[in-house]
Amino acid sequence: MRRPLAAIVAAALVFVQAPPAYAYLKFGVTVGGQAITLKWTQMPVRYSISNQGITDVSVADFQGRRRPRVRDVAGGADRVNLVSVRRDYRRAARAGRRTVDAGVSEPPGARSRPGVDQLSRRSGERGPPRVDIFFNTAFQWSVAPAGATGRFDLESTALHEIGHLSGLGHSALGETELRDGGGRRVLAAEAVMFPIAFSAGSVTGRTLKADDITGITDLYPEADFARTSGSVSGRVTKEGQPIFGAHIVAFDVARGTSVGGFTLTADGRFSIGSMTPGIYILRAEPIDDADVDSFFDASRNTDIDFRVMFVDRVVVVPKGGDSGDVAVAVVRK
Amino acid sequence: MKRSTLVAIGLWILAVGSSRVAAAQSVPAAEPGRLEVSVGALWIGQLALGSNDANETTPTGGNLKIFSTSTDLGSVAGLEARMGVRLLQSLEAEVEGSYGTPQLKVTITGDIENAPDVTATESVQQFTLGAGVMWYLPVHAARARLVPFVSGGVGHLRQVHEERTSLETGLYYYVGGGAKWLLFARPRGFVNAIGLRVDARAIVRTKGVAFDDGGHTSPAIGASAFVRF
Prior knowledge:
The complex is a heterodimer.
Chain A: E1 5-10, E2 13-17, E3 28-31, E4 34-40, E5 45-50, H1 59-63, H2 70-74, E6 87-89, H3 92-95, E7 115-120, E8 130-135, E9 141-142, E10 152-153, H4 154-166, E11 174-178, E12 184-189, H5 210-219, H6 225-228, E13 230-238, E14 241-242, E15 247-252, E16 257-262, E17 269-275, E18 278-285, E19 309-310, E20 315-317, E21 322-330
Parallel strand pairs in A: 5-6, 9-10, 13-21
Antiparallel strand pairs in A: 1-5, 1-8, 2-4, 3-4, 7-8, 11-12, 13-14, 13-17, 15-16, 15-18, 18-19, 18-20
Chain B: H1 3-17, H2 19-22, E1 35-44, E2 47-57, E3 63-73, E4 76-88, E5 91-100, E6 103-109, E7 118-123, E8 125-136, E9 146-160, E10 167-185, E11 193-207, E12 215-228
Antiparallel strand pairs in B: 1-4, 1-12, 2-3, 3-6, 4-5, 5-8, 6-7, 8-9, 9-10, 10-11, 11-12
């Protein structure tokens, strides 16, 4: 069996306290009832690459000798204005022992997914933990500029996984249909961070969307970004009771872009930050285009038994402020 | 052309055309230096701000429409006040301000998951402050009670969203015309004349709540009472 090509990333990864926003699924933990987001605090994030016998994509593809260059991929977030995250390529040989895992094997769960991130710390290892990105060798890969029939686009998957290692969870901005043989087929998506990959041959996932940009900007804002961006917040209820896991889509009617968030608190609150100021409408929908566990732990009581609806008021996201509380009352299916 | 625009133009033509009929009713002519104050109502027609679809990208790079939106700033009836000074017998400079609360409306249709169509709304407080000139047309007899005019001006536009969370600013321009009907006039005294004023305008608003920086034109009709000092 071929072993995976692994992009191994290590840097100072620490827990930092997040602002009180409950949107853009982020990696983190809850401590004392407060959401603590996991994000990089030391820049640049250094990464290295190892090739464990894979034949269709070489280390050279990642090092920039052939397209796509991983520096472009890793720098995907850098193409976003106002985001301060920076990454820095380091060759494996220079990266030091802890950044190279020459004997890496496929992580659990990787067989059904094109790529997977794994946060780990070796026994006895000090310092920051390591994030490994695995590209599953059970899939055929392509680095062709226009994609290749029957092969998954490496750049698209890398961009998605780099979103995870940057601290982003999944976005629900996508539409799928069930396959006859099981699983889902993506009809369309408006976020690189949608949990299900586009079909083989597609290179659509190489382009960051408004939802990705807003999410990564929320994690790594420039110092004065809070003054120029805004947020929308509110609460979703069903028959008077708060619901968890409702997907809220804010659509910018002037620019035609969408960003999504979720109700992530026990009292059904949502707050989407780092938004472009403007005029928005809100759409509330249940998670029904991907498995709920792509977004939340199975232990959470995610409510998917309600109808899709629009809020009947215009929501204005002001510069440097919040929309004010938006009440969303959904009804049972 | 919209029906409301046609109505406004018709009213203006009617006012200008009827001036000759009223010419026989002789009143004293206004002298330069006279001050005129008017207060009344202003109706501004609906403004289409634009349409946008919420799309998602398909595997081939195409668009899958999730729903459609169309945004308008609704028509509004508000208050208007003016103060003018007669520069020449046929030319007047004036400053004007207005206030109204149009509805910002986003009509949402065609949801892919059959969400009911909705018109999302909010109330916008709209303030204008500007200056303009009026030229009294020579088609009227020098001492007629009905005095037609054309006018034009420019001003500052402020639009405040309902929750007072955001303030949008812009400019407005207008051209139009109408007529003044003198109810009372005398050659001397503190109060020189009292009358009614009706005019139709094309108002071009830029920026504010609009999606772009371009101009968006709406018809407008004003009716007010004035006192000339």
